[in-house]
């Protein structure tokens, strides 16, 4: 059963050995290994910039929109599931709204 997808490569939990969950995001064992290689091979003086700040052609930028949107959708679905869990445990819309930095009414309208 597909529970979640890696937020980096979009592989579902059924196609990876391990899928580690974070706050609304997931990373698979294969992507962790890629990250370790990138960290180990990174020159010390490379400045950190946002991925969209790199000099990229439009075609590549457009190709990036699909996985970013898919990751965003998964985060929104994950948030809704957590809100549902809070409700099942007796959490009020006021408590949920406060946790999300919104009003009780806004929380109810978004998740009820
Ligand atoms: Zn992955």
UniProtKB/TrEMBL annotation:
The keyword Metal-binding applies. The keyword Metal-binding applies. PROSITE patterns: CLPX_ZB. Keywords: Chaperone, Metal-binding, Zinc. Zn(2+) binds at residues 6, 9, 28, 31. This is ClpX-type ZB domain-containing protein. Residues 1-47 form the ClpX-type ZB domain. It comes from Amycolatopsis bullii. Belongs to the ClpX chaperone family.
């Amino acid at each position: 059963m597909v529970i979640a997808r890696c937020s980096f490569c979009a592989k579902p939990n059924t196609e990876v050995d391990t899928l580690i969950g974070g706050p609304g995001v997931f990373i698979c064992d294969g992507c962790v290994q890629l990250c370790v290689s990138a960290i180990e091979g990174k020159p010390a003086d490379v400045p950190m910039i946002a991925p969209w700040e790199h000099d990229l052609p439009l075609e590549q930028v457009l190709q990036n929109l699909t996985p970013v949107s898919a990751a965003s959708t998964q985060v929104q679905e994950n948030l809704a599931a957590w809100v549902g869990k809070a409700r099942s445990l007796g959490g009020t819309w006021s408590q949920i709204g406060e946790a999300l930095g919104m009003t009780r009414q806004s929380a109810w309208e978004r998740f009820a």
